[in-house]
Amino acid sequence: MISPVLPTYARAKVSFERGEGVRVFTPEGEEYLDFGAGVAVTSCGHAHPHLVKALTEQAHKIWHTSNLYQMPGQEKLAGRLIDATFADTVFFTNSGAEALECSIKMARKYHAFHGHPEKFRLITFEGAFHGRTLATIAAGGQAKYIEGFGPKVEGFDQVPFGDLEAVKKAITAETAGILIEPVQGEGGMRPVPAEFLRALRQICDDNGLLLVLDEVQSGVGRTGKFFAHQWTGITPDIMAIAKGIGGGFPVGACLATEKAAAGMTAGTHGSTFGGNPLATAVGNAVLDVVLADGFLDGVQQRALTLKQKLARLKDEHPAIIEDIRGTGLMMGIKCKVPNTALQAAALDQHLLTIGAGDNVVRLLPPLVVTDADISDAVDRLDRACRALEAKAA
User: Fold this and answer.
1) pLDDT of 65-123, one tens digit each?
2) φ and ψ at 336, to 5 degrees?
3) In which order are the strands placed within the sheet that holds 351-352?
4) End-to-end CA distance of the chain
5) pTM surpassing 0.90?
6) Would you tell me how many other CB atoms lie within 10 Å of the CB of residue 193?
7) Biggest CA pair distance of the chain
8) Taking the CB of residue 259, how many other CB atoms lie within 10 A of it?
9) Does residue 69 contact residue 276 with C-beta atoms inside 8 Å?
């Protein structure tokens, strides 16, 4: 008999009823250290008092009106995102996949608006993950997500990760732009080299293409900058964000330059819930925290601590850990054992982690993590590795 909730998840046999900072608690009161942050979502930790205050205050006012009417909170959040980024305009969604759908539509519409509807294809990269809609699974190109869902949505040309010559060869008269994650998350915590992103920006400029970034996982302070591409000095034309911007409340956004958004006129796109008063109240509260003076500097410092401790862990467990990769508070452990085994062993130590492609375990702690939390997490990983070594002996 099928379960009441569609069985599309392989859920761990544990549930949580309360969270505080970087820790979550089961109904029985057992404490777990959360280094998954709901897949990079709880950027400010659990039950952050400023976010709780913003949400409850808004809940006592008005929850939803739809985008048929003016929403001051949405306009405020859009303005703050614009002030802190390359963007001139913002469209709000409920999720990262929806933000990518808007980005894809915008890139196509830009060329149609300028008289070239034939330019609708986007170049994407092996190992990418852009969401679970029909268009975004086609953009990601991974067979395990595409299989069984009928013909793949047309318009995506995938090339090997980091292969600049392959990008150049993939450009045709139908190419509209290039879509890339500055750091592949689900693909195995692989940062795109800065020089490669700069080269993509130049290719787009030289060929009249749009550069579309997927910063759903890498954005909102995760790498120590507000957005990961800011480390490279380049700017995109369009960018999809979500996860951390809501701190746990479902909200995403598509950010764009005025030029890229030229074709997105009234009626061309919409969302019933996107950017409603509850979502934008929380989003504004998240920005209060993340954009506060010194906060991102602190993220960078704690990220360095995590990286150094993980490097020592690798040296101490060469039979378990092949490599440490990633950037900021977006780190990955490439395993020599199945990554599911290390995840399970970490869970036994009451440490929450996230799996990824290429046999990697992701570490995505809330941005408010402390040095003491990091030491605690690495100690738990050490015990997990020792348990696996003992089992193999």
Assistant:
1) 999 999 999 999 999 999 999 999 999 999 999 999 999 999 999 999 999 999 999 99
2) -95, -20
3) 18-20, 23-25, 31-34, 351-352
4) 40
5) yes
6) 11
7) 67
8) 10
9) no
